[in-house]
Specification:
This protein is α+β, with helices and mostly antiparallel strands. It has 41 helices and 15 strands. The longest helix is centred in the N-terminal third of the chain and has 29 residues.
């Protein structure tokens, strides 16, 4: 980023708007009407002059923002422009529209800026909050003036919040309404009778503010907490709200409101005099405020509206506007967002320091470090207890140093304090927090290599209490990044991806929290297998260390899994892990994505998939550790990322792999397993006649018998028999799977090359998201396709009706009653593409992942109708699809198809493979597929 320092000028508002010249021009417009500005023609000309002046001024303000980078200055300039426009309108109204030659005492008025405008700062799209202050009750003259000003402002395109009151009304309402009280707290005179404004401010301070500090503080902090709950409780959300989000401008506003109210200061510098902030704290306050205002003003200028959410589609453009550039391993937008989150972290630090100072003065009650162990903290607050170290004391629930020199005397105390805080679940004293921040430079290489320091850190990391909370405190104070420099590199690092909801450091800390939940049995219903097997692992220490390190190499040019394994091999011995433990941690870090990738994008019924995975894992213990780590990793990515379907896929992979690793799974010969599956189904269909049963058992190819579970085989048999008797040639079945969060749809239809693409198109038009598909063909030319769509409705009956609507649409499309290409095109046009992201399209044609099929893996930018276009293209290439596995990681789609040619063979010809890659790349771009050759393939059934 190119750092810009706001230019120093004797008058930062010079040249923005010439109010006197504007007044003269407006006066000249009334010459033809003898000074009567109420004429409609004159009013139109006046409005045009005001629009031009405001437009030119705003253009100049934006130019200055680019030139000097001053965010706060930009907001002040916009407020200044608004002040001048208001003054000109008011003067024109009283001199040329509603002139009063001898005004009475009641015909006076003061225009007062309140709320954000009262602070003298405005964003381009901010509301203009005004109080028209009267000495007594409203008069006809006052009503006319207010009405004229408001209509002018509205016609200028401004959003205006306004009230017309006298002083007594303002004070009466402020006593009962905290919003009005907050607005008046920032009252600022703009124009008119200034003594009125002065009287309001003086009486407000004496009769409303005095003595009501604790009440106001409690209300503002409660309001802040509610706002954080609405916006998201983490300040590290990757699409933050600049104004309302945690760590945003509103948090700084709240500090300033409370400061003005409780400490009775009129400026931020007054907090230094009051002893709340040090000068360096106040400098951080000003720098953070300036940066956030720059982001907010750029955001409003860019979007042309009051947009407060820093969404993915504007982040890159804002980064460019602010002068950020790309560095190896980090995009320009990621560098910008890292700066944003560091500022949000500073805002959080300032909030904690400020609130702790209030607690010291009994303005609010202290809160325990962790909600999980409130009772321990409550006991600690009632008495002074021993910490186990002479350098620390716990008094009234707060951990503090015994002296100012404890960190200089022994820098390991900077780690020890968090181990004590974890053990006793206590708050950290505000004075100690300040001392910690000033002492960070004491964490040197010598401290990092100290065995006791590393023992204490490992104790915190693997704590059975609440390691997530303590690690977050370590991170917020800066200790964690200093003690583990590799972690420091990912602090506030944002990944420009829709898949990741948090910064890298926040994700790592949250993943430790999820791991703790699984270990405590608090996630049993969602993750029953992980909850069960975590009790059986031999070494929980390696699991927690691997969890802490799994993404620690993000932001580097090389693969973060490989780089992370290298960091683990360097760091683990320092933490006291044995060579064997170190190698296990390194393996888990290097392969932490493998289980998720294979479960979501490989055919788990294909024996080669399981054998290859088992060969990589090598032991049941590693399999257990990898499963738990994978579940916690996905859970910590963000809300609703982990679902029952992903959990089911992971469990299936685990259960398929475990017997291979234990050596207890001996495969019967292929033919014997097929015959055993047929006998099993025959036993379940005992009511069928011998001839009917024999004919049915010959209708399926071996692949069907080996991979389909018995329950589904029985349902398929009954559905096919009913379709034969009805002679419809089409049948469908809908089954809900509530725990997995998917709905299973099975379709029986005459086989043809475009069947799967027809199903995919119908699902897309119906708004159903396919997550998996299995395709089987009968020996008599029918296809039995089973697809899984994401569940949308909570009730099974409603979800079944939804699935049946999808089935009816599929049937209409197969009968030619629904023109799918047209319907898909209309649906795709109505849904917006993800424009902010770029994902390089990669098409793999792999013959080593399966013994019987060629595997096509398409990784690309997701878009509406993608699966339909891909399946059409595959059909156009005369390929038979055996199974499809659909995964979406934010903006990136990974679609995998197991295919053969029309003779049931793999695609071995290099030229043919190149043609497949080229055609699928074209399909990703949305180019139409050619019509396939019309043949009746023996698709999934070829052995």
């Amino acid at each position: 980023m190119t750092s810009k320092t706001p230019a120093r000028s004797a008058d930062p508002f010079a040249g923005l708007i010439d109010a006197d010249d504007l007044r003269h021009r407006l006066t000249a417009l009334t010459a033809a009407t003898d000074g009567d500005g109420s004429d409609l023609t004159v009013r139109g000309h006046v409005l045009n002059e005001l629009k031009a002046a405001m437009r030119d001024a705003r253009i100049r303000v934006e130019e200055l923002l680019f030139a000097d980078g001053g965010g706060t200055l930009c907001a002040q300039r916009l407020s200044h422009v608004q002040d001048e426009i208001l003054r000109v309108i008011f003067d024109f109204a009283i001199h040329h529209v509603y002139r009063v030659k001898n005004p009475s005492a009641a015909e006076r008025m003061s225009i007062v800026a309140v709320g954000g405008y009262g602070r003298g700062t405005l964003a381009p799209g901010s509301d203009v909050d005004l109080l028209f202050l009267l000495p007594y009750k409203q008069t006809p003259w006052g009503e006319q003036i207010v009405e004229y000003i408001l209509y002018m402002l509205w016609d200028l395109g401004l959003k205006v919040g306004h009230a017309t009151r006298n002083i007594d009304e303002c004070l009466r309402l402020a006593r009962t309404d905290m919003t009005i009280r907050t607005a008046l707290l920032e009252a600022r005179h703009v124009w008119g009778e200034e003594p009125l404004t002065d009287e309001l401010i003086e009486r407000f301070d004496k009769s409303v503010v005095a003595g009501s500090g604790p009440e106001f503080i409690a209300a503002k902090l409660a309001e802040r907490d509610a706002r954080h709950t609405r916006q998201g409780t983490s300040r590290y959300l990757v699409e933050p709200n600049v104004k309302e989000g945690k760590g945003g401008l509103r948090d700084l506003n709240t500090l300033f409101w409370i400061s003005k109210y409780f400490y009775r200061v009129r400026s931020g510098s007054g907090l230094v005099k009051a002893g709340v902030f040090t000068r360096s704290d106040f400098q951080r306050f000003k720098k953070g405020e300036d940066f956030l205002w720059a982001v907010r003003c750029h955001l409003h200028f860019l979007t042309g509206r009051a947009e407060e959410r820093l969404s993915f589609d504007v982040q890159r453009e804002i980064a460019v506007r602010l002068g950020y550039t790309q560095h190896p391993g980090m995009k320009d937008v990621e560098r910008f967002m890292k700066h944003y989150f560091l500022v949000a972290k500073d805002v959080g630090d300032l909030t904690r320091i400020f609130c702790a100072a209030l607690e010291e003065q009994h303005a609010k009650a202290p809160q325990p470090l962790s909600k999980l162990i409130d009772r321990i903290a409550a006991r600690a607050r009632r008495r002074q207890i021993q910490t186990g170290s002479p350098d620390f004391v716990i008094d009234k629930g707060r951990l503090n140093t015994a002296s100012e020199t404890v960190f200089e005397k022994d820098p390991v105390n900077l780690i020890r304090l968090f181990a004590i805080a974890d053990r006793h679940a206590v708050m950290l004293h505000p004075e100690m927090l300040k001392l910690v921040r000033r002492s960070l430079k004491l964490i040197t290489t010598q401290v990092r290599e100290d065995p006791e320091a590393n023992r204490l850190f490992l104790q915190v990391l693997t704590s059975r209490n609440d390691p997530e909370t303590v690690l977050r405190k370590m991170n917020e104070t800066g200790v964690l990044g200093r003690f583990v420099p590799d972690f420091g590199k990912v602090v506030a690092m944002m990944q420009f991806s829709m898949y990741h909801h948090y910064t890298v450091d926040e994700h790592l800390i949250r993943s430790i929290g999820v791991l703790g939940e699984i270990e405590r049995g608090e996630a049993g219903e969602d993750h029953p297998l992980s909850t069960d097997i975590i009790k059986t692992i031999q070494n929980r220490k390696v699991l927690f260390v691997a969890m802490f390190l799994h993404d620690i190499a993000k932001g580097r040019p090389e693969d973060h899994s490989i780089a992370g394994a290298r960091i683990a091999r360097r760091l683990c011995p320092r933490l006291g892990l044995t060579p064997s433990e170190t190698e296990t941690v390194a393996w888990l870090v290097e392969h932490h994505l493998d289980m998720s990738t294979i479960a979501q994008s490989r055919d788990l019924a294909d024996r080669k998939t399981i054998e290859d995975f088992a060969r990589e894992v090598q032991s049941v213990e590693r399999l257990k550790l990898l499963l738990i780590l994978t579940v916690a990793d996905i859970r910590a990515v963000g809300p609703n990322v982990f679902n029952g379907w992903k959990g089911q896929l992971l469990r299936t992979l685990y259960y398929e792999c475990e017997p291979v690793l234990t050596g207890g799974h001996s495969l019967l010969p292929h033919d014997m397993r097929v015959e055993a599956a047929k006998r099993e189904l025959a036993g379940a269909l005992g009511a069928w006649s011998k001839d009917e049963l024999g004919a049915y058992l010959d209708r399926h190819y071996p692949a069907y018998w080996l991979r389909v579970p018995l329950e589904r085989k029985v349902a398929d048999a009954e559905m096919i028999r009913a379709a034969d008797r009805a002679g419809t040639g089409f049948s469908s079945r809908v089954v809900t799977h509530a725990f997995e969060g998917v709905t299973e749809i099975t379709v029986l239809a005459a086989d043809h090359p475009r069947l799967l693409s027809t199903i995919a198109g119908a699902c897309f038009v119906a708004g159903a998201n396919i997550v998996d598909a299995q395709i089987d063909t009968t020996t008599d030319g029918f296809a039995l396709d089973t697809i899984y769509i994401s569940r949308e409705l909570p009730g099974d009956d409603d979800e079944i009706r939804r699935g049946e609507r999808v089935c009816r649409l599929i049937e209409k499309a197969l009968r030619g009653e629904e023109r799918l290409p047209d319907s898909v095109a209309r649906k795709a046009a109505s849904r917006s593409r993800v424009k902010a992201f770029r994902v390089e399209t990669e098409v793999l044609v792999n013959n080593s992942w399966s013994n019987r099929y060629t595997v096509l893996e398409i990784s690309c930018l997701d878009r509406p109708g993608l699966l339909y276009d891909l399946t059409r293209a595959i059909s156009g290439l005369n390929l038979n699809i055996n199974s499809a596995h659909i995964a979406t990681f934010g903006e990136r789609a990974v679609d995998v198809f197991y295919v053969t040619d029309l003779t049931g063979q793999k695609i071995g010809n290099i030229g043919r493979q190149d043609a497949i890659r080229e055609r699928l790349r074209e399909a990703v771009e949305g180019e139409p597929a050619e019509e396939p050759v019309r043949r009746r393939p023996r698709r999934a059934g070829v052995a």
